[in-house]
Amino acid sequence: MSEIRTFPDFLKRSSIVLGVSVLFIIIIFGALIYTIPAVSNFKDVLLELIGINSLFFKIAVFPGYTWAALIATEIIWFERKFIAKMQLRVGPLYAGMVGGILQPIADVIKLVFKEMISPSKSDKLIFYSVPLLSSAIGASLLAVLPVSDGWLIMRSDVSMLIVFAVIGFVPISVLLAGWASNSKFPFIGALRGLHQMIAFEISMLIAALSVVILSGSLDLVNIVQAQSRIWFIVLMPIGAIVFFITLLAELERIPFDLPHAESEIVMGHQTEYSSMAFGSIQLGTYIRFYALSGIFTTLFLGGWYGPQFLPAGFEIINQIEWFTLKTLLVMVFIIILRGVNPRFRLDLLLKFGWSRLLILAFLNLFIAIFILQMGWFPFTGGI
Amino acid sequence: MSELTVTVGPQHPGSGHFALIVKLDGDKIVEVIPDPGYVHRGDEKVSENKNYIQNIPHFERPAILDASNMLFPYVHAVEDLMKLEVPVRGQYIRVIMAELNRIISHLYYFAIYGIFVGHSTMFMWPVADREHFIDLAQMISGQRVGFAFLLPGGVRNDIPEAVKERANEACNYFEKRLIEYERIFMNNPIFEKRAKGMGILSKEDAIKLGVVGPTLRASGIKSDIRKDEPYAVYDKLDFEIPVSKDGDSWARAWIHIEEMRQSMSIIKQALKDIPSGPVKLNLRGQVRPPPGETFTRAESSRGAVSFYLISNGGMTPYRLRMITPSFRNLRAISHITKGLLLADLPPAFWSLDYWPVEADR
Amino acid sequence: MNYVFKLFSAIISGIKHLFMRRLTFRYPNQKLKFHGDGYQYDPKEGVGISGYRGRHILYLEKCTGCSLCFMMCKGISQAIQMIDLPNIQVPVNKKSSFPQIDYAKCVYCGFCVDACPFKALFETNEYEMVSYDRESLLFTPEQLAIKPKYKGTYEIKYGKRGAYHG
Amino acid sequence: MSETPKIKHEPPKREKKIADNITVKLRKDILEIEIKPKRIKVKVKPESIKKAANFFKNKLNIDHVASVSGIDYPNDNEIEIVYHTGTYKHKDLSDLVIALAFRISRETPKTPSLTEIWPSTEFDERETYEMLGVIFEGHPKLEKLFLPEDWDDIPPLRKDFKNPRR
């Protein structure tokens, strides 16, 4: 009898490796923070670098990458659990105490320890740069996401333009993935993705443009402030619907998941990716999912505004809470749509995108201009 | 423009155990040539080496989801040659098993349909709801999939008493579920867009190609062996045959939904009307028909399945021809997919409920 | 507008299922309840007694070694082999020939039970016979003679919030 | 059918009428005609098969073929081909299956293809071709359907084909 290498054994070994490395990092950081205070000057520098008010903290922890990655991984768990409930099954169950809540982390561990395979004739440089690009696109959207009044990574006069500039990179990353894989299914998937995103991006821009017209600013913070009395979804429901549908297409979610339709083209542009390369593409997709839901909240659902239920002095936390809650609700709704809908077909989708959504988007633009010209919306340019 | 040839299957997520050689003009299908035979096991030849009882588990295998319906014409053929009169209770139990099988098979159809159009919920629900009927079939026959339940002269065993109540409960529950199926899948606008007007098989073509079952009825021909040539006790039961005039993929799926409703009604009636008495003739020893030949038919969940049995009085059949519905519906695949887009190929050919193992035999 | 209404009703249907009970059967923790002690056959009447068709049970003291089950299985799955076990002395079985069943081949059709005229071979409720190699699936007559202890208590129940295993 | 074969002693009237109709029109070509409830088997001369098929299609409203079966009779040195036909258009005859049978020589099994008359015979004739080696002249695509492309043994459904594994 040969030795059978069972899975738990393998898992044990890999978790030991991971645990040791995490412990190592903690020790080093702890040492940095607590053993050097003798040099008081250095401590101040360090606090400025990793303190709660520093830019580094904002970018790296909250509301930046760590927070988004946490939400992304847990939304994967939530999606699986939620869809499972809708489909009368249990979903992840055994990892973690409550309903398999640690399943995404187990998945990440599994992906990290898998072999990275690339097709023999692929363009290695591009092939491996796509996962990075995918994560980077998601992460850079977070930079301008206004989670609250006084707590955001950066404020820019043209933050809306930044958002769309970054989203414009998504089709490129998809095409690069398909091209570099040098394989049939990824390439077809990439072309499909390209078609779809270009068809929907214009409608998306025009729907967002009407928001800009009403609020009179390209600054996302100003846009939110313009909604302090009334949300834009009430004023422009058509625009909100158009933006939401284009959002789905941009995120490649059902019913617009053509770029990686399993029964047709296996996994689309992600077919040839394995291990953490696949993992980081997925992570990037889910961070983008969070970020774009956040953009939808910002543009149409009044961003951080909501009734104050925490005592005075905690306004920022209250705002963050409302923003997160609204964003999560948008995400849940997108997940519900995944549960109840089949997939579109490419020609139907293009027809829908170019002939219906574009018209609706323009209609919405006219409505916005009309509202503005009649003087019914007094909050233009923020408060 | 040059033609592109793509082979879909047998290792493609959107095909079964068979290949489709697709000739494409851009994204448009010019011609589809089905290439079956990957799961051919020579059932007709193999059956000549087995006696009439040993053939029973073997003849279920081509359509294991539809086991009882596949055996129906076979046991009829043997009984016809041996001139046997099957007890009425046995006939009722046969009908119950056949209708349970029809529901199980139709639910599987919806599960795969859901996968092919990317509807994950429509994959999970039918698989979950099949459990009720598989459980009932297991209570009756003692097996969950390959029942081997019908025998020449009756059925293997009597049904336990508990089945009656459970079956009624399951049918009542599932009738409510079917409404949800219609809401989430059949009437979903995206599915309607993808299925309505797709893969049309006109009435004339359906007759010309000699297709059977739901495919035929979706094209507007009211033909069902259960009504045309009532076997077992189908003439004593009250049920309808759903017919649609559209002949498209959606109509074929709709026929499946309605047939499940009718099957449940049949099960309920049969359990109510079932008389007491023996379930099987005691044949005492080997089943051995006298020389002769017979051609018997039954309506399986995919259509008419026929057996042409020629006996020379020996222990084994002299020649046994098995005509399965999928083999007859195979003729329609190249017909309905002409002019569609490649993305529509898997949902379009699956709407025929094509089952490669059954077609290859 | 009709489309919107239909889409909306689909979404409502999906949300409704969030409040229904899950049907999933958690197998290793829960086990299905079968009625009866497995499939049996009454050779006098020629009719079976309904029950689950799982692993066989062989009553060594009744088996005559007639090999009818072997003859039947030869044309179905060739799972049964007759083997001689001289250490088991049964008065009706002079040659000490007993069936041995290979569960890697068995299709659980139960025709061997129908073929046995002495009520020596029945089927039981046990179905858990997983192993790493094929040799462990080869059940010798002594192994077949052991009465399995299968205990399952779960079955499908129909409640207000849908069906569940309870 | 199996239900009540004992009661019906004489051939049923409707089938008798159809059979008489066939006999009158195809008197010269028919060798034998068998009548059973809901089943008629017409045996014709091999050279007049096309004529009979045309008559079936045009006069009897037979619109499809359920199956094409080939039966090998090595003792008579003949192969029998049976076309089981039926009708969908004619509601009264929907339970009737009319079999059109003829025998051809085993050494040179050649017969005209009926795909022009009934397009539904295409795959069945291909199957009969590969399984029994019957050549259907005029068939649009007489190639292997189920068997492997490199099959070089005799057609498997012939009686003298022996399974090499047994």
Notes on the protein architecture:
- The complex is a heterotetramer of chains A (383), B (361), C (166) and D (166).
- Chain A has helices at 7-34, 40-50, 55-60, 65-86, 103-112, 124-142, 159-167, 169-181, 184-215, 220-226, 232-235, 237-251, 262-265, 275-300, 315-340, 346-374.
- With 383 residues, chain A is mainly alpha-helical.
- Chain A has two domains: 1-50; 61-78 and 117-374, no CATH class.
- Chain B has a single domain (41-325), classed as Cytochrome-c3 Hydrogenase, chain B, CATH 1.10.645.
- Chain B is 48% helix and 13% strand.
- Chain B has helices at residues 43-47, 55-60, 67-82, 88-116, 120-141, 162-186, 189-195, 203-209, 214-218, 225-228, 249-273, 325-336, 345-350, 356-360; strands at 4-8, 19-25, 28-35, 150-151, 154-155, 292-300, 303-311, 319-323.
- The longest helix of chain B is centred in the first third of the chain and has 29 residues, at 88-116.
- The radius of gyration of chain B is 20 Å and the shape is globular.
- The mean pLDDT of chain B is 86.
- Chain C has a domain at 37-147: 2-Layer Sandwich (Alpha-Beta Plaits).
- Chain C is built from four helices and nine strands; from the N terminus they run H-E-E-E-H-E-E-H-E-E-H-E-E.
- Chain C has helices at 2-16, 68-74, 111-115, 141-145; strands at residues 40-42, 47-49, 56-58, 80-84, 97-102, 121-123, 138-139, 156-159, 162-165.
- In chain C, a hairpin with a 4-residue loop joins strand 1 and strand 2.
- Chain D has a domain at 13-108: 2-Layer Sandwich (Beta Polymerase, domain 2).
- Chain D is 21% helix and 28% strand.
- Chain D has three helices and seven strands.
- In chain D, the strands form two sheets. In chain D, strands 1-2-5-4-3 form a five-stranded mixed sheet. In chain D, strands 6-7 form a two-stranded parallel sheet.
- The N and C termini of chain D lie far apart (36 Å).
- Chains A and B meet through helix 13, helix 15 and helix 16 of A and helix 4, helix 5 and helix 7 of B.
Count of folded domains of chain B: 1
The whole-number mean of residue pLDDT values of chain B reads: 86
Which strand order do you get reading across the main beta sheet of chain B? 1-2-3
How does the major sheet of chain B shape up? Answer: 3 strands, antiparallel
Task: From the structure above, extract its key features.
heterotetramer, B: 361 residues, alpha+beta, Cytochrome-c3 Hydrogenase, chain B, three-stranded antiparallel beta sheet, 14 helices, 8 strands, 48% helix, 13% strand, globular, D: 166 residues, alpha/beta, Beta Polymerase, domain 2, five-stranded mixed beta sheet, two-stranded parallel sheet, 3 helices, 21% helix
